[in-house]
Amino acid sequence: MTSKEKKRRTVTVLLIIVGILILIPLYMAIVIAIKQPSEMTNDIAGALSLPHKWSLSNFAEAIKITDFWHAASNSLIITVVSSIACVLVSSMVSFAIARNMTRKKIYKFFYYYLVSAMFVPFSMLMLPLVKQMAFFHLDNKIGVIFLYIVFNMSINTLLYVGYLKNILQSLEEAAYIDGYNTWQVFTYIIFPMLKPMHATVAILTTLAAWNDVLLPLVMLSGGDGRDNTLPLTQMVFQSQFGTNYNLAFASYILSLLPILIFYLIAQKQIINDVTNGAIKG
Amino acid sequence: MKNRNKTFLAMTLPVIIIFFCFHTIPLFSGFYYSLTNSKGFGVYNFIGLRNYVKLFQNIKVLNSYIFTLKFAVVTTIIVNVISMILALGLNSKIHFKSTLRGLYFIPNILGGLIVGYIFNFLFTFVVPAMAQKIGISALSSSILGNTKTAWIGIVICVAWQSVAFNTIIYISGLQTIPQDVYEASAIDGADGWKCFWKITFPLIAPFFTINMVLCMRNFLMVFDQIMSLTSGGPAESTTSISMLIYKDGLTGNQFGLQCANSVIYFIIIVAISAFQLKVLTKREVQL
Amino acid sequence: MKAMRRIATLLLSVVLCTASLTGCGPIGKSDKKKAIEVFVFKPESVETFQQLGKKFEDENPDIRVYINSPGDPYTILKARMVKGNIPDIVGLDATQTYVDYAKADIFEDLTNSDLTRKVKPSYVKMLANIEEMHGTVHAMPFAANVTGIMYNKNKFKELNLTVPTTWQELMDTCEKIKAAGQTPFYLGYKEDWVINSAWNPLAGNFTDADFYQNVTDGKITFRKAYTEPLKRLLKLNDYSQGDIFSYNYNNATVGFANGESVMYMQGNWAIPMIMQTNPHMDLDMFPFPALDDAKDNKLCSSIDLMFSITKKSKHQEEAKRFLEFLTEQENVSAYMKEQFGIPAINCDYKFPEQLNGVLDDFQSGKIVSSPQAYYPSEMKLPIALQTYMIDGNKDKLFKQLDDTWRDAHEN
Question: Quick one: fold of C147-301+371-410?
């Protein structure tokens, strides 16, 4: 028993040490963000030592310069709406595909058609897509949300169909016998049953949409910049104030903060859901 | 039943059509532009397969393929080895299990661009300063500034972010193994290492396959981190294919040529993924 | 049953409505004012232009001005051109990127317009040369830049140094600084474009104005013209802080501002950042002494910012009014003062002391146009130079230059 406990302690300590190593870059970013330029030197002490005076003035200034609240609300709207839309649309399509792909070739084709798109590099589609979206007047937030639904369709279909294949169909069959039509079966039986997968899809979409750079960069950069998302403001910021490391890091931390808070609140849920996606997908 | 079929079609068809319009049509027009000398705007001419010929003669393109493949293979291996070890550790009986799992997942939720900016500073100033203090001359200058080592910096940064996700997938794989399997093997007298190779690994082989394919695909498409770490330098030694398509296709006025490049790139990604799936799933069955 | 349908409709409408609900364009149509969008490729100048834009709106209540200055401006502009959603006014520097757009007939011809008449004739001529379109110009040069060597005056005094006027003197100065245990240049060559600030004055001084036409005609080769400037470019690396490919423009600028090097090869656009980092710095600039004879050395200058009106603009009149507003004495001064720019517009302007050392050449017109403006964008010369510095393969470099030049000029 003692040797087991000893082993347990050793593994724990090792994992904690590695965990601390993982956090060093973030620690550095936070410390620099709090310091003033006068405390910055190009050596270890400058980067890693604690600040003499704790002040959030860099953050305040970065919020002002990058118009943080505006960009954050844009990012938030795009992320939330994309995630919800992805869940609704992908689960519906996957339901139809999963229930038909063994019976009908066309659904099997749909499945492989959607999933194989996962391997198309975005840079290949970028320019023709930009042209096309502008033609439909969709070079705005709505268009970006729309494209997130399209581009996440592949992985989402893969996950949902994998999950649906393993759900027992007896409940559905019973519902059909009770006189439910297909829409009803989907809304009342399937949709609630897919709940664990919804969470997985929502989280994966949220991370992808929140952190994306390229798509908003080419789609949203028209006019007065009122559609700018957080990563975009960081790119402008980098070229304008990149020499003030403290201000720059404050701005980086700010743009990481919302997703970090979201993670801390929903941490258990997120890890469980990603796990779910892996087992059942 | 007939009604049901109609509904199923009503559920899928609109989405498939939209998907076709906003994914497949741009794909085809990309292919079309690969046969032209288009700059992305203005007039252009149809030039047949000349772009593809040019592509195969271009050293720059070749180098970028070599870099991308090297990067993807090395990072995939490193990430999977580390993830496997961490997963074994995090799945064993330890203290603070859920807190530790939570901590290890943090890098994965952060955006690649910002993480790149942070690592850039780390590699440029902090690591060399530390190395000088300790006296490791090899690390006393930034690894990002050297054509031979810059790619390692990118591997570290990308691995730092990706390990988390793969670890979680391995953990979920390990959780599917019933405890009594281990108990049986303990009776047989299998030691830790043997136990891993003979029992654990075969049982989580499907998860290994998922991780390998997803890693390879993601790393072949690497972009954000390179953008903020090196922008493809020095001397283009870390220009990934996505980066090359983005840079030369958009700012370098070689839109047609880079469209041809993306067609080749697409074929390669599909080929590698298909190959991986085939080999790895075959192994799974044998095991 | 009804609830069912409603949910089903909702699902579909998410997809279909996004397709049909087109949303409004980038610029709000709700107010009746005419809106013009000004695209500026210099993100560092965005605040200055926003102030000028506000002032213009106050003077012209019927017009709204949106300043758009994104990160990665060249890509964004390209995407906008592809979209066909083109800004009313485009502000670029004088490079072949601009020329490509001009040749694609995207900009209004401004030759002999009221706007270009306000510009110093030498810059209109410079632009016409770069465009190579029968003397026409499609932009109004607004600000010019000079690329030279900035130096820390205090350190020069400390080390008893004088401003070098020939290549040999520059080398001697560097040796003296090195002997005193200090760093002559802070080089931020991690970002390849930074190499331009050493290369442009070198290559510009070693070639004459007909050089580019002669290359196209096959009368001269890059190998012949560029061998010597290349040698000198490489020589400069001996006087750096070392590990030059690890530091970028920002790092180098901060380094120089904090006194980590005595000199810094950059253009005047770096001055705002330097002064922001170290407001007390005693800074001046001298022309890059590329040649062996002091009287042959010319100051390297180019058009830093110029504005074009796009053909597709629906508010050309308003766009013109905004550009006219920019050329007013007071507004030119406001911009130049904040950005340490050099006006390309005819006006009275008192230069800041940080530019004292280059003023003489500037005013007497002892100027060479920066070669950067002539390199086709697919040539990516700075990257080629960076690669050459690392692998030392001269043949590869010249082959690449020849190939890309030929490719760019064959169609």
Answer: D-Maltodextrin-Binding Protein; domain 2 (3.40.190)
